[in-house]
Amino acid sequence: MQLASTIAVTRTLGYRVPAAALLTGTAINAITHGILDRRDPLLWLAEKAGKSGTRPAAAPSRIDTDISANI
Fold first, then answer.
1. Nearest partner of 22 among 10, 12, 31, 14, judged by Cα
2. Can you give the pTM of this predicted structure?
3. Phi, psi at residue 17, to the nearest 5°?
4. Are the CB atoms for 40 and 46 separated by under 8 Å?
5. pLDDT of 35 strictly over 60
6. In whole angstroms, how far apart are CA 45 and each of 31, 50, 58, 62, 69?
7. Residues 6 or more apart from 42 whose CB is under 8 A from it?
């Protein structure tokens, strides 16, 4: 999807990007997203940088949306 979108946008704007550059960019994007989505590498990096005060699970906080629980 990303590759198709990139080709459509670059062609629309009049740019001709070589196929090797498009494939390399897509591969780099896939690899970095794969690493970042696991979160463990980010937690390791935060610990090495002295920023280990982050939440270990790196999960978003959930707010109770049940109105009756607040009454």
1. 10
2. 0.56
3. -95, 130
4. no
5. yes
6. 17, 9, 13, 25, 39
7. 36, 58
